[in-house]
Structure formats: structure tokens, C-alpha cells
């Protein structure tokens, strides 16, 4: 992050429906990492959405247990 901003990280199904809010808080400028447990998720492809500073990125994630 280039500056302190509100960050919202969510997990979505492939239809774009929100499954879980993984993180929602103000973050300081700099590099960040987030690790989450996939315990209750079934194997498959999911999306995660990262909203920060007025922009949004959506990426795919694969869960294989």
C-alpha cells in the first residue's frame, strides 16, 4: 500500500457471491500478507476481492485439500 487506507478482503464464489469477509480494517502503508484457513471450504476455484484506496482487484484462488 502506498498510504494508510481502509482495506476490505473478501472471499467470493465463482458467481461473485460473498462467502466471507476475511479482513476489514485500516492498514498502514507498506507490504502486507494475509493467511487464512480453508478448513470448511470444499475443493474448487474461488475468487478473492481486495478493495483499498478506492480501487478493487479480483483474483482466482484454488482450494485443494
The largest sheet, given as strand count, sense and whether it forms a barrel, is: 4 strands, antiparallel
Strand content: over 45%
Any idea what the shape is? elongated
Number of β-strand runs:
4
Order of helices and strands: EEEE
Descriptive overview:
The chain has 65 residues and is mainly beta. The chain has one domain. 0% of the residues lie in helices and 55% in strands. A four-stranded antiparallel sheet has the order 2-1-3-4, with no helix packed on it. A hairpin with a 2-residue loop joins strand 3 and strand 4. It starts with a strand and ends with a strand.
Keywords:
elongated, four-stranded antiparallel beta sheet, mainly beta, 65 residues, 0% helix
Strands, helices and their partners?
Elements lengths: L4 E8 L5 E10 L16 E9 L2 E9 L2
Antiparallel strand pairs: 1-2, 1-3, 3-4
Briefly say what this structure is.
With 65 residues, this protein is mainly β. 0% of the residues lie in helices and 55% in strands.
Amino acid at each position: 500500500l502506498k498510504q494508510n487506507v481502509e482495506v476490505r478482503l473478501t472471499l467470493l464464489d465463482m458467481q461473485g457471491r460473498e462467502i466471507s469477509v476475511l479482513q476489514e480494517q485500516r492498514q498502514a502503508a507498506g507490504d502486507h500478507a494475509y493467511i487464512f484457513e480453508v478448513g470448511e471450504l470444499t475443493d474448487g476455484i474461488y475468487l478473492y476481492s481486495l478493495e483499498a484506496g478506492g480501487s478493487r482487484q479480483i483474483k482466482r484462488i484454488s482450494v485443494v485439500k
